[in-house]
Design brief:
By secondary structure, this protein is an alpha+beta fold. Helices cover 49% and strands 15% of the residues.
Length: 453
Amino acid sequence: MRFSDLLSMSVNNLRRRKLRTFLTVLGVLIGTASIVVMVSLGIGFNQLTMEQIASYGSLTEVSVYSSAGQGSGDNGKDPNYMTDDVIKQMERIGHVTGVSPILEVNVLMKQGIYEGNINLMGVSQAYLKNIPLKEGRLPEPGKQEIEMVIGNMVARNFYNPKSNNNNFYNDSSSIPDIDFMNRPLFAIFDMDAYYQAESGGSSDGKTPVKPPKKYLLSACGLVEGGVDEYNNYSYNVYVDIDALKTQLKHIFKKKPIPNQPTTKKGKPYNYFIYNQAIVQVDDMSNVSAVQKAITDMGYQANSNMEWLEQSQKQAKMVQALLGGIGAVSLFVAAIGIANTMMMSIYERTKEIGILKVLGCDMNNIRNMFLLESGFIGFLGGVTGITFSYGVSLLINKLVAGRFMSDMPGDLSRIPLWLSMTAIGFAVFVGMAAGFFPALRAMKLSPLAAIRND
């Protein structure tokens, strides 16, 4: 007997008992939808967590900090400073695609009546390319003059020193109107000298400290986002690290540079020492190994993968729990399929006997009942997936929109592989539920079946 004939007979048998078939398919529908919706919630929770962590920084970045202090070496030992030689060592670590040292300098910037303490960060061109811009461009490589990329929330750091209303962190409506792109800013790098001059202090107790020189800086770009939209680049001002080094050497000459360590005699080193470095890794799966290699070098290292791995473990537990709850419904549906097939055998005993007397192969009889149960599973799987998309849409529009408005993205997510897997699993459950009834049909005695009323 051909497969098409078996399929045609199976479909016709199901059509003759429409109500029973409908109720059995309904049970599979509910079971499939329960599993898909539950698993989709676990997938959505996992992806939302990943997206939220990724918004704080790349998942393939490792932040490296020096464990040495900013002063000279203690107990006669050389501090484990982060220098250009150390950066080169990190670049030779396996799976590292690039290392960007970060040189931080605190400066006082002024524009009009406003001033603000700004964290100026010198970074490499590779690091600058990762900064999303709202307008403007990135600093040009090899240029001697400092060009700034301004964080979208930097304006909150500015205030009017003659005003008492400077609560810009809590009241965004009163943030100073600083025109970064069209007006230059004055920057004071030697802040110690500035505050000593402001307070009337002196270096030798007699001669007043002269106010330090102001330097004119211009912005070339603004970080993407509004003054209330935080991201990883919001509160800093970014410049090319080589241009910053040139500027600092020109300003301080042989004097100690602020935030740079000195020797035991209080003299500056003849090279720059970095506060931090960002290591780029080729793949998320290699971040932990690279992080360990850097830690073994004696530096502190952390990454967003640490938080992500912990969150993924929790998400997998939640996903397994939700999937288990949904599987109970599908198990109940499998019992319904088995019951339907057993009832079908009892009602078609004479038909089975006639098929055997006519010489029908036992395997064909078994396959006919397996096809019927598998077709029930297929119908329930397809309609269950369709119903799942509707429930998922409802969850995302109503539940997630009301209780998770601060987290962009859908809570329930049904990828294509989940839909296909659910349909295949429903067919498998249907055929598994119909296996034992099919075996019983094979074992019926032909003569007893024909005599059955």
